[in-house]
Design brief:
heterodimer; A: alpha+beta; Ubiquitin Conjugating Enzyme; four-stranded antiparallel beta sheet; 4 helices; globular; disordered C terminus; B: alpha+beta; 3 helical TM bundles of succinate and fumarate reductases; 2 domains; six-stranded mixed beta sheet; about 55% helix
């Protein structure tokens, strides 16, 4: 007996595999026997300080998904005003109170990717990055982000910080 | 009598301020003991708010067995005279009430249950056929314009499966109640009704934009105020769902205002049918008290 959430997730997996998404290099359950924990790999957008980086995210799906949002966090270290440098927690309204069951795992990942180039420095989880933006030091901000991209997100092996 | 307090139908969002703030304090103390400040995250805050919500909501089944109008009256025995008077008046023409859980989805759940129950009790094959056709239309024509299939297909299958079983006479009223009390099934049905509402709103954007009462694009409005499972239904959502599914609804609006000595009824009839003066399906009757919907049963 396949329950509602498994049925939905299998459909999402099939949907992702059907058409390649160059910005989302990977999206699949981590282990075969647990459909409720997924891994995603985001590709940084060109012409942003995230260009060339690959970030791994861990996705935990609640049993009443898609009524409740999935819990998503970065495993690869990333420097961004709305993402905790230490824990990888993401501050994005659609993953919290503004979640709608019309989202899918793939569209939620793409929303996170969009957040990378559209930071919201007024609600920071990374104050150092946010402060650079808030005082208008864009050059400083970009070099900081680029440095961390090179340091953590560009090596061949997966840099999966603290899980 | 302590039961009557528990049964007070309140959406969690309209929780009594004193209850909320006191439990808030309890939890705040727990938290100081349990975690270091540095471990406190927005995610934990969200989980905690969710747990309060659930605790309050789960005291009432998603859809309850019926109760007499006297039971409803008793709820106000210590309270407002205006309400007592209005309920007495309402009881002249309505014999029974069925409560729904105040979890933000009460309108959709009450609508869904009352609709299915009407179809269960109807022996008219045209009514059954019309209901199935309208439902198929929402899946084949209405929703695909606005959502990708995988978002709503499972929910549609759930709704269609039960509707067919009802039409084929496979369900009785106990079975119907058990379906709506099953959290997973019940919520799938509610979600489908929410998607029908949003798709119809988007489809008729120009007609409804002036009612929105906010300067927002329809997509943003729908994802903020309709799609989410805890978003309560407004007048406009009732209007839209009624039209999209061609199901007439009458709502008894009960407020504490003493301007009227009886409950005010609002009629929501699908356009074409109202103009012809014929309603193949008898209107569903819902009772609205500020922030909450239940189902009413009218005397034959």
């Amino acid at each position: 007996m396949v329950n509602a959430v498994s049925r939905r997730l299998l459909k999402e997996l099939k949907d992702y595999q059907k058409e390649r998404n160059p910005d989302l290099i990977e999206l699949s359950p981590i282990q075969e026997d647990n459909i409720l924990v997924w891994k995603a790999v985001l590709r940084g957008e060109a012409e942003t300080p995230y260009e060339g980086g690959h970030w791994t995210l861990r996705i935990e799906i609640p049993k009443n998904y898609p009524i409740q949002p999935p819990k998503m966090k970065f495993l690869t270290k990333i420097c961004h005003p709305n993402i905790s440098f230490k824990t990888g927690e993401i501050c994005l309204d659609i993953l919290k109170a503004a979640w709608s069951p019309a989202w899918t795992l793939q569209s939620a990942c793409m929303a996170i990717r969009l957040l990378l180039s559209n930071p919201e420095p007024t609600s920071p989880l990374n104050c150092d990055a946010a402060n650079l933006l808030r005082c208008g030091d864009f050059m400083g901000y970009e070099s900081l982000v680029r440095m961390y991209t090179q340091l953590y997100a560009m090596s061949q092996t997966d840099n999966e910080g603290s899980a | 009598m302590s039961d009557s307090i528990q049964l007070q139908p309140t959406d969690t969002s309209t929780l009594d301020a004193s209850t909320e703030s006191s439990s808030h304090l309890d939890h705040a103390n727990d938290r100081t003991n349990a975690y270091e400040y540095s471990e406190y995250t927005a995610e934990k805050n969200q989980e905690y708010l969710e747990s309060i919500r659930r605790e309050t909501a789960e005291k009432t089944p998603l859809v309850c067995p019926t109760e007499s109008m006297d039971d409803l009256l008793k709820e106000y025995s210590q309270g407002s005279e205006v309400y007592q008077q209005k309920i007495t008046k309402l009881a002249e023409k309505h014999h029974t009430i069925r409560r729904c859980r105040g979890d933000g989805s009460c309108f959709y759940r009450a609508f869904g249950f009352a609709w299915f129950e009407r179809l269960l009790n109807s022996k008219d094959p045209t009514i059954h056929q019309n209901a199935l056709e309208t439902l198929t239309y929402t899946k084949n024509q209405l929703l695909p314009h606005w959502y990708e299939g995988l978002v709503y297909e499972d929910m549609y299958e759930e709704v269609e499966g039960h509707l067919k079983a009802i039409v084929e006479g496979k369900y009785d009223s106990d079975k119907l109640l058990s379906i709506f009390q099953d959290e997973s099934i019940s919520n799938q049905i509610v979600m489908y009704l929410r998607f029908v509402t949003t798709a119809y709103l988007k489809e008729h954007f120009n007609d409804y934009k002036p009612f929105l009462d906010c300067d927002m694009e329809m997509d943003e409005y729908c994802s903020k105020y309709v799609e989410g499972m805890d978003k309560e239904a407004d007048h406009i959502h009732v209007l839209v769902l009624t039209r999209a599914l061609k199901v007439p609804v009458e709502i008894a609006y009960m407020s504490g205002s003493n301007a009227l000595d009886q409950v005010n009824f609002h009629e929501f009839y699908p356009e074409d049918e109202a103009s012809e003066g014929v309603l193949p399906l008898k209107p569903l009757v819902l009772l609205y008290r500020p922030g909450h919907y239940d189902i009413l049963y009218r005397n034959e």
